[in-house]
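To whoever is on call:

I kicked off a structure prediction for a single chain this morning and the downstream step that reads the tokens threw a length-mismatch warning. I double-checked the sequence; it's 170 residues and nothing unusual in it as far as I can see. Pasting both halves so you can look.
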Amino acid sequence: MDAAPFARIDASRLTLDVGRIKGKSVYRNKTFEEFSIADIAYLTDVVSQKLKFEIAPSVINLTEISRPGATPHIDRFNVALNYYVAASGLDETTFWETQADIKYRYGVSNGFNEAGLTPLSIRLFAKQDDFVLLNTRIIHSVKVSENRLILRFCWIGHSFKQVFDSISVI
């Protein structure tokens, strides 16, 4: 399970007031912006009606990805549960492997050139209201045709399997 790039979580859609949860911008680059959660009590109430986390997320944010998307990278956390608030279903997440001996440390790495990578045969196409658990320590890239909005629950210091096993659908 730890080597899996992603797993779909079969939970029903969230009814979210995005204006109520979208806080201040906390990180930005040219095609990617993360926002804090403005009303965590409201969000906790909405999510707790659909999911239960035995291991609490380290970070929760709202993320916007704009065209053309994100180049190959790893995230600063190990695992993320993405809830796709707005997604076309046509946008592609590609997972990559490299033969290089790369030592990952805490933090994001955007230093991967596609020429030195081999795409894995599995791809992710997420549509609006999908819940997908991602192993964000596997190199991945995202191609979007229109802006994508994602509610992200992120874990640092836990494996993909640990987080997957800790999530219950209500």
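Update from on-call: the warning came from a stale cache, not from the record. Cleared it. Sanity check on the structure: The longest strand covers residues 88-97.
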